[in-house]
Write a structure and sequence with these properties.
Helices cover 47% and strands 12% of the residues. The relative contact order is 0.16. The longest helix is centred in the first third of the chain and has 16 residues. It has 357 residues and is of the alpha/beta class. The chain has a domain of 106 residues. The protein has a 7-stranded mixed beta sheet, sandwiched between helices. Helix 2 links the parallel strand 1 and strand 2. The protein contains 18 helices and 7 strands. It is globular and about 55 Å long.
Length: 357
């Protein structure tokens, strides 16, 4: 699996759900999978000291550049530089931010100047997958007007009626099963290795979650849905980009530490007096049970009593390893309650577990 390019320019897990699960606040320490950096920034903005770790130096470069933008620019300029709003000045703005990057990250972005110019929120492989979907596939089954109608504010009953009468056509279902199949998604969007431990139809399971997002959840203020369908955030923003959160995110920059390496290594290096929370994205999805158990155990060794682990399942079911069950309890009711509100809709479960001793 190549790690020399940005795989995720955005975090595709709902930060509002995550922050409620981990309750970041002053004095709490959280270990976070870095990915695009959005959710690590959101956790630090709420007062926690956050260590963000990633195997990929490209992902670390992505987080560093976002951090530099928040450090040096005002809110409107951050949105323009990252690609939320139009700008012709991204290259010159980048040059003003370079001094805040490490040499490795500086070299990465100099080699990816076209991504800077486009806006780095478009720079990931996963975002490119959605770009192909919007440009070449979605127009085959739905017009731009239909997409706009999908994103209108409606009651739940009206959303359900719209989905069944206007959206859920045979062409939509056939297209979905092809474009979001294990084969196509593995080659164009994620990585074939990410599906090694997945059983059953990938597309059918994602289609069921998509229906939930289009009907049960409001569509007009879902930034993840809007990005997939339109390529931008004109109606709603992820937590870390909202105007009312800007000063808090900027204030939290000094509480964010980056670690280039696996999350269990970061736990050992930065463990100190221990962590109160763990944002683990969906890392267990890609690993065999023995490796999951090893990593989970290493994280527990750096956990304070009462610490919470939060992570997602997309297609492969993962929970605490059986042999570690005496040290951890699953918070099933809270997990289910938050998952019902989770707007990053392609996951099949949100898991919150608590260290008991």
């Amino acid at each position: 699996m190549s790690l020399d390019f940005v795989r995720y320019a955005n975090c595709w897990e709902d930060a509002d759900v995550l922050c409620e699960a981990l309750a970041p606040s002053g004095g709490r320490r959280i270990l976070s999978v870095a990915s695009g950096g959005d959710n690590s920034l959101a956790l630090a903005a709420d007062g926690a000291d956050v260590v963000a770790a990633d195997l990929s130096t490209a992902q670390i470069a992505c987080v560093e550049l976002k951090r530099a933008a928040f450090m040096r620019l005002d809110h409107e300029s951050v949105l323009a530089f990252l690609g939320v709003t139009p700008s012709e000045e991204r290259r010159s703005v980048y040059r003003s931010l370079e001094k805040d990057l490490t040499p490795l990250s500086r070299a990465f972005w100099r080699a990816h100047g076209a991504d800077v110019e486009r806006g780095i929120l478009e720079s990931g492989k996963f975002e490119g997958y959605f770009r192909l979907f919007r440009k070449y596939v979605l127009p085959l089954v739905h017009t731009r007007r239909a997409v706009e109608a999908l994103l209108e504010e409606r009651s739940r009953s009206a959303r359900e009626e719209f989905y069944e009468r206007k959206w859920n056509s045979i062409a939509w279902r056939l297209m979905f099963r092809v474009f979001f199949s294990r084969f196509v998604m593995g080659r164009l969007g994620r990585d074939p290795e990410f599906f090694r431990y997945v059983e059953g139809s990938v597309a059918d399971r994602i289609l069921a979650r998509t229906r939930y997002a289009f009907t049960v959840l409001p569509t007009h203020d879902n930034p993840y849905l809007e990005y997939v369908m339109t390529g931008g955030f004109s109606r709603a923003l992820p937590r870390y980009l909202r105007r009312e959160r800007f000063e808090a995110v900027r204030d939290g920059l000094g509480r964010l530490t980056l670690h280039a390496g696996p999350v269990e290594e970061a736990a050992s290096v930065h463990g100190g007096s221990g962590f109160d929370g763990f944002n683990l994205s969906d890392i267990f999805e890609y690993l065999d049970p023995a490796t999951c158990s090893r990593i989970y155990g290493a994280l527990l060794n750096s956990a304070r009593s009462g610490a919470r682990l939060a992570y997602w399942n997309m297609l492969a079911r993962r929970r605490r390893p059986e042999e570690l069950g005496g040290r951890v309890r699953e918070l099933e009711d809270e997990s289910r309650r938050l998952f019902e509100r989770d707007r990053a809709f392609f996951y099949s479960a949100f898991v919150i577990e608590e260290v008991t001793g």
